[in-house]
Amino acid sequence: NAGVTQTPKFRVLKTGQSMTLLCAQDMNHEYMYWYRQDPGMGLRLIHYSVGEGTTAKGEVPDGYNVSRLKKQNFLLGLESAAPSQTSVYFCASSYDDTEAFFGQGTRLTVV
Amino acid sequence: GQQLNQSPQSMFIQEGEDVSMNCTSSSIFNTWLWYKQDPGEGPVLLIALYKAGELTSNGRLTAQFGITRKDSFLNISASIPSDVGIYFCAGCNNAGNMLTFGGGTRLMVKP
What is the reported pLDDT for A97? Predict the structure, then answer.
């Protein structure tokens, strides 16, 4: 049982480049989330989804877009990467809006 | 938005000592969760609390849901080196807002 799988695990982007982070869960969870983790800032919610075809903004959504075309997948896109988006990104999923299960993270560096 | 204040930010203790950390909020939560994050990994759920006043244990870990619903505590007894990591509290008010995370407590254990 893989749980929550994120790809890639590491990525270096140049300022202005675009990329998509992939998240897949095999627990049939309705809720999926994207967080970013910065030193001393804890985990901050970027976007989330409460079901297939739905998305909503979290605490820090600017500069990111998401899509939930399939229940098991939640994609996070950066259209034009900026150095301020250097961070560790975590995807998570949950049955309801409480106990979230996390992936192993994607470490993104924007130079 | 909702904020969780987690303290202490870091702790450096001797193996065998007990540890206590807490989270406080200006808002009421209906659910409190405690996670542990090992270096290079995603957070893993340790304990979930759903009722004010609830006291729940998981091995050497004990967590309590404060009676005011605005705070929660995590205690670790007889610490061991593998307890090293970052501990996060998270709260949810089940009113359409997703989990809010505290800033984390970094625990270091000296053998």
Answer: 79
